[in-house]
Amino acid sequence: MKSSNDIPVSVINAFSDDPFGGNPAAVCRLQAWLSDDILRKIALQTGLPITSFLVREGNAERLRWFAREGNEVQSLCGHGTVAAAHVCLRLEQEAPSTVAFQTRAGLLVATREGDAVAIDFPRWTITRCDPPPGLADALGLAAQEYWTAGRDYLAVYANEAEVRSLRPDFERLLALGRHGFIATGPGLSHDCVSRFFCPSFGIGENEDPVTGSAHCSIAPLWAERLGKQEIRAYQASGRSGDLACRVKPDAVRISARAAIFLRGTISI
Question: Do residues 50 and 67 touch, judged by C-beta distance below 8 A?
């Protein structure tokens, strides 16, 4: 029996067309905002790395992301945005071709491109740096060079095999503070390959399956290195995912497919 408190929910695996691949997110369509306490409880109950909440506000969608442990994401969540875009642009009745999301990271505009969506994410500035003490040991293998993008550190390795071989000490990474740690290198069948370690982010996993926001710095690094704007990126986690990135002067446009795993209703 349908109640006035029923919330439509979809589980979307972003960055893959494999129903068991990519990065899963729950997307909840709200008519009006519920209390933050209820949003946290829903995120805890879904048990997914991210739960995205949508409310229409005028001509845009207000989008908020909550991590598995109930904390609201304060910076940027790429896969939660890709999942929300697929719901708005592919699943809902009278779906538009473009949707604008108002988020804590600013305005993010998504466009439908066949069975994919393309989103203009901010381009993050990266700066060459010395690694913080203990980072090489925590990752398990010294990198050729290190960069910082503010939220994240990037460790650049010689090849895909080195990136795949990493077995980090997550307790040591956690002791380095609230940062994400990107390992990246040239790919065998893609322009670049990466992994993203984030034990302090509250998503319930030490390694994020596929990280859209990390490519706000990964894509510009490899675009400059390879001398081209179009970068085909692969994240080599257990679930894995593909990202088609176009690097612009002030944005990184990421095109991504997604698999619809579940559609249903939350009753509270």
Answer: yes
9-59 pLDDT tens trace: 999 999 999 999 999 999 999 999 999 999 999 999 999 999 999 999 999
Write out the two tokens for 30: 């709200």
CATH superfamily of 127-247: Diaminopimelate Epimerase; Chain A, domain 1 (3.10.310.10)
Cβ neighbors of 61 (< 8 A, separation 6 or more) are 54, 55, 84, 88, 99, 100, 101, 102
- Give the Cα separation of 257 and 23 in Å (integer): 11
pLDDT digits (tens, 9 = 90+) for 203-221: 989 999 999 999 999 999 9
Nearest to 83 by CA among 115, 117, 59: 117
What residue type is 101 in one-letter code?
A: F
Amino acid present at 171: E
CA distance 162 to 158: 7
Tokens coding 259: 């698999």
Residues 213/245, Cβ–Cβ less than 8 Å: no
* Structure-token pair, residue 124: 């993050």
Residue 197 is encoded by which pair of tokens?
Answer: 């370690």
pTM for the whole structure: 0.94
C-alpha–C-alpha distance, residues 89 and 120, integer Å = 15
The domain at 6-119+255-267 falls in which architecture? Roll (3.10)
